[in-house]
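Q: Protein A?
A:
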Amino acid sequence: MSQTPPAPALDTSLDTGLAFWGANMMRIVDSGMKWPGFSYSDEEMARLRAIGAPVTYLKYQLFTWITAAIFIVIAACGIGVMFWAMLAAYPDTSKTPASVFVATLACVALVSIGWGVPVSMRLAAKIVAPHVDFSTIGPAPGDTALSAKVRFQIWRMTAIMCGVFIPGTLLWIAWDIQAGPIVTVLKVAAIAVMTLSLWTARRRPSG
């Protein structure tokens, strides 16, 4: 008489990468801000808030700094490979077609951000998670799907940015736009927006 094979063991490990993303989204929502392309249902947001609740402010900051450091290394490696390939294909850099350079740079950005950001967050989460008390938070059936959704959102936004980057840069080169004044205005605007966002976040009551 044949025996019924044992059921596969359930995965009882908590997705700490999703937990730190939850801490990230929780702080963004509580600050009154929104990230275009990163929207969640009420149930998903409740899960992100619950799973990210044990992450304290200091642990969250440590997570973001480690994520940034790892991503910088990944991006630098990608750019290094790109320049090596470009020099191999065009030893005389003055003969490099603008379209080839821009398209290659966009592809490197697509891989570096679309793949590098999730990997950086995963590694940073593994480093910081042992110092966070997740004992009261258990895994939920929808965590895998929610984590996959986050990865898709990152890839989607990266693809959109890189898709806009290629024609925008080529038009910039074709029209010989003088970037100095424009870049200065964009820098001032970016600083103003970041300052306003930080000021708004600090004025909002925590918890």
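Q: Protein B?
A:
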Amino acid sequence: MAELAKRYHPRIAKSEYKSFVELKEGAGRPRIDYMLGFKQVAEEYKPPILYNVASVELGNTTTKCIITSTDLKRGKTFLVTKIVKLTRKVRKPKIGEVVFGKTIWGVELTEQSVAEYVRDTVLEALKSAKMDIKSDLHFVVRSTGVTSALATPDEVDSMIKALAKGCLLAGVPPAKMVASPTKNGLPRELREFSYLDKVPFVGAITGIIPPRSKGEVMANEMEAELSTAGIKAAAKWVGVDYRHPLVSFDFGTTLKGRVVNDKLPYADTIGSITGLGGAIFDAMAKGIGFESALELYEKKPPSYKHVDWHVVEKDAEEILGLVKVVEVPEKVTHFGTIPVNPKAARDSGITLVGVDVGENGSDLPKLSELGEEIYKEKGLDHFAAVMDCLIGRIVYAILKIFKEKGILNEKFSIGVTGRAGITGLKPYCVMRAVEQIGLIKGKLEERVVFVEDGLATGAAIMARCMHNLGTPQTPLGGNRGMPCILNLRIKYHEKKFS
């Protein structure tokens, strides 16, 4: 551990909490009085303009409602509150209810049970934040990682309806779940920050065009989009300019990510990453009596004392033998339990890389057995170190595929979010993997960033992008090192529609 800590210095962007009361009063803003000669002058105080967004996510392992507030004058996003519940506590189906699908862990879901669970989670978050749903909240973004376990479009539709119904039951007005097509449709205090009158919303979140395909490349495409946006925004908190070109990883229960080029004024998605993520580590943790790997880190945080990293690497290599990291074969419909469309990926010029254990998770029980064996022989610290080392090996294998296809070069930055990518010593192991792949020259910490709550932060950013609520002083679009590219986009649209 000492060697890793000495060699690598990961920058981890942790969510900054502020109460809504503090934010409304302008807490944390620069002093507004200054000295003019020998006389102190106080400028007229102007309260911050806040854009408040609730992100509601029902995932395979956790269900969250995270409320963020963005100070539009500074372009800084704060976390107001975060409510996290276990999805396995969604109530069981009642007689007469139709089960439309299951989570990756087998929890049965109905529209009614999901809607009620979402309702309760949203109401709990609003109560915790001390916010009024009608006067304080501007927008609600809904997402789900459970699409990975759903088999048909009808099942996905049922999930989308259930999420919307849950928000409506909580009292969210329908207008706060649909983007306004015009600037005048926004609340009056937000209009000065909107550029909808200059640049239309074309579906690009933080300047990235989603896959241009006739069919959906992977079922968790939206989560990949949100997480990428969240990493871009949060990276600024730790001084990293994480803009194009980039690779993003979100190691939730399922894995989702993107490879984005540096095309201007809008970048293209040229690679997609999907499959099993945290589920791999959850399976290992189940072998020693925990429900998930997250539970292990919370209840028995490892100290990593007396860990022999040479033995750790050997054990990680053995486990990697069960993990399949490949370009997704063309004829499959699911990979790592995720519905995929390799043909749509190929036709749109996207390299689709997936992570699986057996066939659609069929060998996860073997991981549990191997995890139990490692734990019994070498203890908790060694067990946790093996999980941390394994994430580095997986990242390395994914980057290697893209590198060998000529997609990556020394210009790319790497961003990681999700519980299975930032806990324990995983950031150090990921940085070692990036160094070994030989992509980045110079200081790794200036090009590799780790983010808490990337998906939730991304939901807030998505809501801003849908309304073109720009912050030119802290741009999220464009390439690394560039100023705001608003003028480039204005010229692009003028030329396109002239």
